[in-house]
């Protein structure tokens, strides 16, 4: 029963991969879609199953309902940094797909994603006993990771557009 979320994640990922392979003809878009699917599958596995990663190894969480931390802020620990790194690619993807989205919008999106992940972990922990904790630090770290990823893409797009304007001014 504890492994049902993993089975569901793998089923959805497999079916999505087949749809991508069967319907997308542009190789570059297909590659990007498959890499995105692999990232989201890995992220979902880490977040919504009893599998846990402590920075050096993968292990299976014991049966339990986890814990909830809504008060103690601790932003200077390894887990906080791991959550930032874990969600940074999502920020890159969001800003790349929606370049007109402001960094405020990216930050709000990050808070919504972080809140949704922690709420889902709470519900899944109580339903399937996957022993995942819900933590306000994780919400903030997820939002920070998405915001940093979005900011990196915003800087890249700004530099690229400035170069293009400069080249057009020299040619024209």
From TrEMBL:
Keywords: Membrane, Transmembrane, Transmembrane helix
Key word Transport present: no
Membrane spanning residue stretches: 6-24, 31-53, 73-94, 101-124, 139-159
VanZ-like domain residues: 37-154
Name of the protein this chain belongs to: VanZ family protein
């Amino acid at each position: 029963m504890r492994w049902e979320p993993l089975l569901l994640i793998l089923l959805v990922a497999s079916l999505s991969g087949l749809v991508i392979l069967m319907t997308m003809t542009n190789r570059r878009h297909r590659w990007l879609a498959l890499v995105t699917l692999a990232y989201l599958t890995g992220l979902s596995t880490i977040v919504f199953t009893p599998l846990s990663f402590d920075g050096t190894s993968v292990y299976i969480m014991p049966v339990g309902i986890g814990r909830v931390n809504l008060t103690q802020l601790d932003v200077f620990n390894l887990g906080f940094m791991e959550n930032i790194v874990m969600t940074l690619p999502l920020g890159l993807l969001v800003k790349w797909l929606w370049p007109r989205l402001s960094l405020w919008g990216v930050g709000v999106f990050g808070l919504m994603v972080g809140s949704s992940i922690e709420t889902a972990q709470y519900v899944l922990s109580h339903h399937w006993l996957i022993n995942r904790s819900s933590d306000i630090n994780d919400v903030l770290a997820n939002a920070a990771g998405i915001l940093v990823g979005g900011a990196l893409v915003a800087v890249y797009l700004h530099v690229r557009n400035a170069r293009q304007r400069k080249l057009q001014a020299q040619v024209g």
